[in-house]
Amino acid sequence: MSEFVKVARVGDIAPGTGKTLYLGATPVALFNVDGQYYAIHNDCPHEDGPLGEGSLCGSVVTCPLHAYEFDVCSGECLTDSAYCVERFEVRVEGTDILLRRPAP
Ligand code: FES
To answer: Where along the chain do its domains lie?
Structure first.
């Protein structure tokens, strides 16, 4: 199983916003939902739009390309159930935010 890796610090991402960062070579969209952090793959499964640049409303991010909506907590697509996006495990240690890719 992979290790947790520090990717950001608490305070880097304001509540209600997201940010694109990398876990190794993998682009990840990290979101702050009312103080809880959630991470999904940055590439929209529709046509690779940058989900980290989407607008966040509650736990729902809207893809900036074609406005498909994804729940950042579950990875489910609310627009088309045929799509879902990979999630990453998030851990906060002190002021550090760490991510880990779940075991397959
Ligand atoms: S690329 Fe995200 S909705 Fe089309």
So the answer is: 4-97
Task: Report yes or no: 9 and 95 within 8 Å, Cβ to Cβ.
Answer: yes
User: What is the identity of the amino acid at 92?
Assistant: V
Nearest to 80 by CA among 91, 93, 95, 70: 70
Could you say which architecture CATH assigns to the domain 4-97?
Answer: 3-layer Sandwich (2.102)
Of the chain, the percentage scoring pLDDT greater than 70 comes to 99
Assigned token pair, 48: 């690779």
The finding on whether 66 has its CB within 6 A of some atom of ligand 1 is yes
User: What is the 73 CA–ligand 1 centroid distance (Å)?
Assistant: 18
Place of tokens 């070579």: 25
pTM more than 0.90:
yes
Structure token digits, residue 81: 């159930």
Tell me, in angstroms, the distance from the centre of ligand 1 to residue 24's CA.
24
Name 104's Cβ contacts closer than 8 Å, sequence gap at least 6: none
